[in-house]
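Below is a filled-in request sheet from our internal design queue. Each sheet records the structural input a requester submitted and the sequence that came back. We keep these sheets so that new team members can see what a complete request looks like end to end.

REQUESTER: design group, bay 2
PRIORITY: normal
MODE: inverse folding
CHAIN LENGTH: 69
BACKBONE (tokenized):
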């Protein structure tokens, strides 16, 4: 899902974090995280929920269902 990858990247960069920082905080491998942002692999719901909570955005925003964070 391209919009998910794009919004994950945007949110992370706005916080000034590197991919490795985010992967470590969310307890996944750097390779897995990089593949999510590159839209090579889609994360499962628990990861999307954890990402949304960590960055204080809604899962609906990440999934492109709303533009409201």
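RETURNED SEQUENCE:
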């Amino acid at each position: 899902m391209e919009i998910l990858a794009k919004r994950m990247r945007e949110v992370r960069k706005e916080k000034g974090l590197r991919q490795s920082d985010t992967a470590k905080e969310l307890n996944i491998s750097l390779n897995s995280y990089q593949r999510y942002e590159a839209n090579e692999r889609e994360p499962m719901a628990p990861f999307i929920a954890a990402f949304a909570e960590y960055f204080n955005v809604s899962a609906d925003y990440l999934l492109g269902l709303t533009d409201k964070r």
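SHEET NOTES:
- The radius of gyration is 11 Å.
- Residues 23 and 30 are 5 Å apart (CA to CA).
FILED BY: M.R.
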